[in-house]
DUF3570 domain-containing protein
Amino acid sequence: MQLSNPKINLSLIASLAIVSSNALYAENYVAIEYLQYDENDNRVSVSTPTLSASYDIGTDYTIKGDIVLDAVSGATPTWQPDTTSGASQRNNTGDYEYKNQTFDEQRTAASLMLTTRFDNRDELNTGIDISRESDYYGNTVSVEYLHYTDDSHNQSVNIGASYSFNEILSYDYDTASGASSRETSNSINIQAGLSQILSDSSVIKAEAFAIKDDGYLTNPHALVVKNYNTANQILTNENRPEERLAYGATLKYISLVKDDLSYKANYRFYTDDWGINAHTLDNDVYYELNKQITLGAGLRYYVQSEADFYNASKDYFTNQAFASSDERLSDFDAFTYRTSIDFKQNEKLSYNLGAQFYTQSTGLDATMFTTGIKYRY
């Protein structure tokens, strides 16, 4: 994409993750960022340092990489035996309560992306992502082609696909043995979009996507109660369908309202054959206080319907083929409030601070703080 008007603040637009070409603001850099995420009620806590780098090989190639180290601890709410009632086995005559199941985990992830630019300045992006945990291995390959429809580079179309293969360690909670096994799942994601420069200060992009998931899609740590208060009551693994087809669309808009003020909006619609329909609306404003300091503020609203096989009650499930009490599949809405500050010390060195507060209608609240440093060379 080319922006011909010299009054446009390229660095500010690029900082908004503009919706089209990576060539808009290519740069060589090394960056370090630290993220701290904490949920209420002593639930999940995540500490994440990230190292990322980008390097231009001539004018036709850019290679980008990231390394992430997560330290995750806390507890996930699910049905468990109520030991105060005398229940000590998973299959018992005692009672059950919805309480936190503690865990402690570390994750290592890495990604690599190569951008290739052709004579007509079309771009091919190829990437690989790897993630490793004690009970989860994830591997993803992706490819995307971006084509400019005219010499002015004011309009482009893109089409891309990714394939993920995952290995999940599952535990059998139907018996007291807690036997484990390795399960697999895979996912194919296809998307296509159109980007258009509307004026010398605004850009819009529309994109459609489809996702096909197959294999073990169950949460291995989530449990449900079946046949409660009968002679056959049991605490057992949740069970989700082994296939899911999802599709949706996104619409993104970025505008340089004034030389020092930018606005970014993003709407996403998602639906799948599990019965979940979701809407996401993002709004962000960035204000360039001076040549060194940029302030940001944002609001995100998310709402979804519940999956067909979800129920939070312990006395609901009997002989259903699919069952889940995982609140992430429930009917809920959520708000995320964001603020940030970026400080540019000079042309090479910059710093950032960010904070987010998340509140969900299920009672889940979370905070996230980020800080980082970026060196351009």
In short: Residues 220 and 237 are 7 Å apart (CA to CA).
